[in-house]
């Protein structure tokens, strides 16, 4: 898992337009249910080709905290359950809160699944069995 942010000014405050605009490109593979593809999402105001730009922007906004990377990888020393959430993978690139974003996601263990699920609906719901809650 990879996430990198270039040094930059502080994140935009809620309700203020981002310095250069928040724009993310999300590419999803093997998620199933027609969710695979590349989507663009713009925030404040929301738009782009993402199927739910308002929800996608809200998901990232919930993760945005001063001094923290909303797209940070799972820490190397994290203890994660050994469960497999399916073959879905994703890459998010672009700019958020004035910072460059280049992060990859998968569902290879409990920590990775939880990291993915925190960004739904920016990332599609994935790995749920037919009839399971939320499916």
UniProtKB/TrEMBL annotation:
This is SSI family serine proteinase inhibitor. Keywords: Disulfide bond, Protease inhibitor, Secreted, Serine protease inhibitor. The keyword Secreted applies. Belongs to the protease inhibitor I16 (SSI) family. InterPro entries: Subtilisin_inhibitor, Subtilisin_inhibitor-like_sf. Residues 38-103 form the Subtilisin inhibitor domain. Residues 1-22 are annotated as: Disordered. It holds the Pfam family SSI. The keyword Disulfide bond applies.
């Amino acid at each position: 898992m990879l996430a990198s942010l270039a040094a930059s000014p502080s994140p935009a405050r809620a309700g203020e337009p981002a310095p250069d605009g928040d724009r993310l490109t999300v590419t999803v593979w093997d998620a199933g249910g027609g969710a695979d593809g590349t989507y663009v999402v713009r925030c404040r105001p929301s738009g782009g080709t993402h199927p739910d730009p308002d929800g996608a922007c809200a998901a990232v906004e919930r993760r945005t905290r001063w001094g923290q990377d909303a797209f940070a990888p799972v820490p190397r020393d994290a203890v994660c359950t050994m469960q497999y959430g399916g073959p879905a993978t994703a890459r998010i690139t672009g700019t958020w809160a004035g910072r460059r974003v280049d992060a990859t996601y998968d569902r290879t263990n409990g920590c990775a699944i939880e990291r993915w699920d925190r960004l739904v609906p920016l990332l599609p719901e994935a790995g749920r069995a037919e009839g399971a809650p939320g499916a």
